[in-house]
Specification:
The structure is a single chain. The protein is of the alpha+beta class. It folds into three domains: 138 residues, Tetratricopeptide repeat domain (Serine Threonine Protein Phosphatase 5, Tetratricopeptide repeat); 111 residues, Acid Proteases (Cathepsin D, subunit A, domain 1, Beta Barrel), CATH 2.40.70.10; 137 residues, Acid Proteases (Cathepsin D, subunit A, domain 1), CATH 2.40.70. 29% of the residues lie in helices and 32% in strands. Strands 1, 3, 4, 5, 6, 7, 8 and 9 form an eight-stranded mixed beta sheet that branches. Strands 14-15-20-16-19-18 form a six-stranded mixed barrel. A hairpin with a 2-residue loop joins strand 3 and strand 4. The longest helix has 18 residues. The protein is elongated, with a radius of gyration of 28 Å.
């Protein structure tokens, strides 16, 4: 026969058992209110501590600890109504985390019918059933939730070049930093050191967490962010950008990014292979198939060397030869200045017809440069896409999906 505990006795059991596991990651906070709240909490001044944790929630709503310790502070005061509210917010906002799991356990002690009422199951459900439902809900949320897109519908952000990478300003969980804009990378990644420097806490041993990313006012909340321990530069990758369309202007050094409209009708698909981080696809140039690197943000056109060109049947000797612009590079008086007549020729150029998946375009500029040592020719998205197509990258299936706007 089950033993029914009084609420007071139940509190004692919880404090001795479940809540002993709740004291996690309390050594460092990114927020002064939480710091002061922890001091008061450790002094058992729970009413005062709760007030500080409530202010911390307003200040850093993406952190789970202030919700967690606010709930504990109310719990210790036997204010079960407020404790239930805060535990419930933890379950809703931070599914799959240790704090969520502990909040579920606490709710099953102080409000055993909470999950049954939420799911419409009536008051007869047991605490065990409610915990199972909550756990399943949290797991489903973790598996399916890719974040919500908020803020401005579109933005124009500037970038600077650093060794060929496009570096942008970004805000992660409200903290400003810099990252490489790299749609060819599957994951959005920040180094653990960078996150620590920004006072963003990541559970020890975790390789991924959910956070808020803001690019010029275009915001994605609860977005998946990978944690890198190698110290590599941060990258804004496909896992963030899949919710947007974007266009990179290499001349003016800005990126137009725009929230995707509702679900679009899918057009066709094109399989691709990976060569390192490069996406290699089969295209047609003047009717002949060739493997090329699909560059989502490169300058307009195709880049290759004469070996690539000859393999595709292109007549290199018919390409237009262009001299280097005398206004470019070091000018007279600079130790590195070279007279224009002695400067090497730039890449040769020719126009070609190109077919990329369902997209076909004539007059695509093809630059043939002997300095190119790449394994494959490379073409940019803007070489063939005039903005009338949305091209999604599915890294799991290794497919490009084309949707006509």
């Amino acid at each position: 026969m089950p033993v029914v505990l009084s609420r007071s006795l139940k509190l004692g059991v919880v404090m001795a058992g479940v809540l002993s596991a709740f004291m996690i990651n309390s050594s460092a906070y990114a927020d002064a209110y939480a710091d002061q709240g922890m001091k008061l909490f450790n002094q058992k001044s729970y009413a005062k501590a709760a007030a500080y944790f409530e202010e911390s929630i307003k200040n850093v709503p993406w952190e789970s600890q202030p919700y967690y310790y606010a709930a504990l502070s109310y719990h210790y005061q036997r204010d079960f109504k407020k404790a239930t509210e805060k535990y419930a917010l933890l379950v809703e906002k931070f599914p799959g985390t240790e704090a969520c799991n502990n909040a579920v356990a606490a709710l099953n002690q102080i409000s055993p019918n909470y999950f049954a009422k939420k799911s419409g199951g009536g008051t007869g459900s047991t605490g065990k059933t409610a915990a199972g439902a909550a756990g399943a809900s949290a797991a489903a949320s973790t598996a399916e939730d890719k974040g919500t897109v908020e803020g401005q519908p579109q933005a124009r952000i500037s970038f600077r070049k650093n060794q060929g990478d496009n570096v942008i300003d970004v805000r992660i969980n409200g903290r400003s930093t810099r990252a490489i804009f790299d749609p060819n990378t599957e994951n959005t990644t920040f180094s653990r050191q960078q996150l620590q420097a920004l006072a963003i806490q990541v559970p020890k041993g975790s390789s991924e967490f959910k956070g808020e990313i803001d690019l010029g006012g275009v915001v994605r909340k609860n977005a998946p962010i990978s944690v890198d321990d190698s110290g590599a530069p941060a990258k804004i990758g496909h896992s963030f950008l899949e919710a947007f369309t974007y266009k990179v202007d290499e001349v003016s050094k800005f990126i137009d990014i725009k929230r995707k409209a509702g679900a679009a009708v899918r057009g066709s698909e094109l399989s691709f292979a990976r060569d390192g981080k490069d996406i290699v696809v089969s295209v047609e140039v003047n009717g002949r198939s060739a493997s090329m690197i699909y560059d989502t943000q490169g300058s307009e056109g195709i880049e290759m060397n004469s070996k690539h060109a000859k393999a595709m049947g292109l007549r290199v000797d018919e390409a237009e030869e262009r001299k280097t612009d005398p206004n470019e590079g070091p000018q007279r008086g600079d130790p590195n200045w070279v007279p224009p007549e002695d400067r090497p020729s730039g890449p040769k150029h020719m126009s070609v017809r190109m077919k990329f998946g369902p997209i076909e375009k004539t007059g695509v500029n093809c630059a043939i440069a002997e300095t190119s040592t790449a394994k494959y020719p490379k073409f940019s998205a803007s070489a063939v896409n005039d903005g009338s197509w949305v091209i999604d990258i599915d890294y799991k299936a290794n497919k490009l999906r084309f949707t006509k706007k």
